[in-house]
Specification:
This protein has 11 helices and 9 strands. By secondary structure, it is of the alpha/beta class. A 7-stranded mixed beta sheet has the order 3-4-5-6-7-8-9, with helices on both faces. A hairpin with a 2-residue loop joins strand 4 and strand 5.
Length: about 280
């Protein structure tokens, strides 16, 4: 036995320490490694570069509503696979996988409650559920949220996040565009505010319908907002698009948004808007 083998044999082995896979979060913008707990406590905003991460409905409701004041609205029943669609997988299998991953029934969840003591109904699209895609379930949920706001005589606030219409439902998904537009008209006929908060990303048929019809258009910083993708546009017009094109700050500068609001300030901003716009408020 050589001296090297004798030395190696005499060294005590060290057991590898097991660490959780989700202990750290890598920011997709600045690539900084952040403790997941620190990232979550900061409302899923990077403390280094202020990049706003994507969050789901429950996190939104907890952050915006007064504690203990809110309840989730029941999801409307819709036909789940009206076209019997199948590509690499059956559409029904994709729905089951999305429900298992998110714990939600579909991509749009509504809740009613109070924001700083003022009634509101909030709808949140979950990009984690099949890219937040708009299908029959999303259209029906939007109508439920709008009509609940009419019944409660309060604003309807929608947080958009979607890749567009749900391809597995074909033309039926596109019909949700006029359907949601009619629900917004019902809100306006009732004299109630409709407030849109666009989050990353909001694209396709959602942008072409209810995401751009708000009485007030708000966005989170850095959100991607558009209809067609940037590469599609560049290949069509054969020109290079400006820096920051389709980002919230660019759209604000060009008049498509009313304000860009940091996630930490959203609750106070929405409460202020409700105070200005909601019926029954005394003039200052």
């Amino acid at each position: 036995m050589s001296w090297l083998h004798r030395v190696r044999k005499g060294i005590a082995s060290i057991t590898k320490r097991e660490t959780p896979d989700n202990l750290w979060h890598k920011c997709p913008k600045c690539a900084q490694m952040i403790f997941t707990r620190e990232f979550e406590d900061n409302a899923h905003v990077c403390p280094k570069c202020e990049h706003h991460g994507r969050i789901g409905p429950k996190a939104r409701f907890h952050a915006l509503f007064d504690e203990g004041s809110w309840t989730v609205l029941a999801q409307p029943a819709v036909r789940e696979d009206p076209l019997k669609f199948r590509d690499q997988k059956r559409y029904t299998d994709r729905i089951k996988a999305a429900r298992t991953a998110t714990g939600e029934t579909d991509a749009l969840i509504n809740a009613k409650g109070k924001i700083e003591g003022q009634k509101a109904v909030i709808g949140v699209q979950d990009f984690a559920f099949m890219g937040g895609s708009m299908g029959l379930g999303v259209g029906a949920a939007f109508v439920v949220g709008a009509r609940q706001a009419i019944a409660d005589k309060c604003p309807y606030i929608i947080f958009t996040a979607a890749g567009g219409a749900r391809m597995q439902e074909g033309i039926l998904s596109l019909m949700q565009m006029p359907k949601t537009t009619v629900a917004i008209a019902e809100l306006r006929d009732a004299g109630l505010p409709y407030i849109v908060v666009l989050t990353d990303p909001t694209t396709g048929g959602v942008t072409a319908s209810y995401a751009m019809l708000g009485d007030v258009q708000i966005s989170e910083p850095g959100a991607l907002i558009g209809f067609a993708g940037q590469r599609v546009i560049e290949n069509t017009i054969r020109e290079k698009l400006p820096e920051g094109f389709q980002r919230a700050e660019y759209l604000l500068d060009h008049g498509m948004l009313d304000m860009v609001v940091h996630r930490h300030e959203l609750r106070a901003t929405l409460a202020q808007l409700i105070g200005y716009l909601a019926p029954g408020k005394k003039a200052a």
